[in-house]
Amino acid sequence: MSPELQALSAFAVATLVSFALTPLAAKLAFRVGAVAHVSERSLHDHDMPSLGGLAILAGLLVASLMFLPDSNESEGIIAGALVIALVGTLDDIFDLNPLLKLIGRFCGAAIPVHAGVVVDHFTLPFIDPVNLGDLAAPLTMLGIVAVINVVNLTDGADGLAAGVCFIGAATFAAIALSLERYSAGILAACTAGASLGFLFHNFHPATIFMGDAGSNLLGYLLACVAIQGVLKT
Question: Using one digit for the tens of pLDDT, what is the confidence trace for 212-225?
Fold first, then answer.
């Protein structure tokens, strides 16, 4: 099977799994108290379940296990995704202290960095490549956490974060595959599919929110794809 066909298959599997499990995630959210209550700042007029990120995670994991090539980098990215999703889930349920959430995000980001998903240099026009040296790992971790926070901040309206991440991941997949960065392309396809499957339930009027479990996870995955696929273009 060609890498392009693997990516399409991974996209389809992730979409189906995420779509099928999102209603179950909603039921679980009500059981464990992961609910977005109505407030003065709310756009919704009734309590909403907030664990859609678990369905996104499930879609990612199933598709990755089936189609993502084995490598230290891939294993590190998936392991970090589990940590990021766990921290987000705990926050959705217990409303964690902001400092504790930040520490959890850095812990999750450290796993793929340790596995080799690192920006070790950058280039500027008319200037030789600038090697980051010992700063490569901490700056990469900081970049991953920054993208996580950016996606988290976009999660304020029905379908917004999931839609943006679907478009971004699908675009990354096409670019990475064209550059023969196949692992990054397949991972991006998994991310796009998991986002789309959830998005069917998150269009206005949404029946579930992705919560921090979802927004943190998608931001983390987009950052890892961009680094692994060298997609600065």
Answer: 999 999 999 999 99
Tokens of 145: 């956490």
So what's the pLDDT on residue 156? 78
CA distance 206 to 52: 11
For residue 111, what are the CA distances in angstroms to 20, 122, 140?
A: 29, 22, 11
pLDDT in tens, 97-110: 999 999 999 999 99
Say which DSSP state 157 is in.
Answer: S
pTM for this model (two decimals): 0.94
Euclidean distance between CA atoms 165 and 6, whole angstroms:
20
Could you give the 3-state DSSP secondary structure of residue 122? Answer: strand
Q: How far apart are CA 57 and CA 191, in angstroms?
A: 9
Is the distance from CB of 118 to CB of 137 less than 8 angstroms? yes
Query: How are beta strands 35-36 and 48-49 bridged, if at all?
Result: antiparallel
The stretches of the chain forming alpha helices (DSSP H) are 3-32, 52-67, 72-94, 98-114, 136-154, 160-178, 182-202, 211-228
Q: Would you tell me how many other CB atoms lie within 10 Å of the CB of residue 182?
A: 18
Buried b (16+ CB within 10 A) or exposed e, 60-97: bbbbbeebbeeeebbebbbebbebbbbbbbbbbbeebe
